Amino acid sequence: MPHLTYSIDDAIATLVLSNPPQNRIDAQMATELAEALEAIGNSDARAVLIRAEGPDFSFGGDILDWPDADVRELRTLFERYMQVFNQLERLPLPVIAAVHGLCFGGGLELALRADVIFATETARFGHPEQTLGIVTLLGGIYRVAERAGRARASEWALTSEQVPASVMAEAGVINRVVADDDLLTEATAFARKAAKGPTRAYAAHKALLRAWAVGGISAADEAMFDIAMPLFETDDVKAGLASAVNASKAGLPRPAVDFQGR
């Protein structure tokens, strides 16, 4: 049975964790995620929505085989997870996560690869790794620190507490908290809106944020024009600028542009 499925419809790629009830992340799910990302990269998708089946988003890694594996085997496994998760994070498309129930460990680290995170009011987030004596192996602690600051990231990693969605939103880790029954409606509506936007510009913004995350403002400034100037050759910018200029000359409000993602 598949542990992850995907579909592409109306320019939205939907990834579904489908290994309930806990949606544990294992080698099979990583392989299926890699295959899905390759298909998305070769498709006309302009936004990605990731969600889960069952009562919870994900409990994280499937630890059942870890005690019997040697360190080399575990390193190979975790490096594979990291590679595939980072491939999702670096997609040149807006990625939206819809989180419900419990989102722990590797599940949280997967959600953190999204650009925008929606969560239900009853969702809970956490790093259970310290209860095993290990660290957030897929970059969870520093990705939380990037969003919420070092103090919060340290506290949550050290305590393994279950953090309510409202607290995560207040700290800036997630973007929006919605009623449980409204999660898919709200997240899908956001994905549809993103899919109709200037896709190339979204990709450029993601690249600039990566430059900033690695080297700070000076690194992002250094990368700015190499990333930004090719946008002026895209059909979307040509249409957007022409529309704005024509409206300005006519003294009219700027109209919405039907961006094509090119």
Automatic annotation (TrEMBL):
InterPro entries: ClpP/crotonase-like_dom_sf, Enoyl-CoA_hyd/isom_CS, Enoyl-CoA_hydra/iso
Gene3D superfamilies reported for this sequence: 2-enoyl-CoA Hydratase, Chain A, domain 1 (3.90.226.10)
Pfam families per UniProt: ECH_1
Domain of life assignment: Bacteria
Family the entry assigns: Belongs to the enoyl-CoA hydratase/isomerase family.
Name of the protein described by the UniProt record: Enoyl-CoA hydratase/isomerase family protein
Organism the protein comes from: Streptomyces dengpaensis
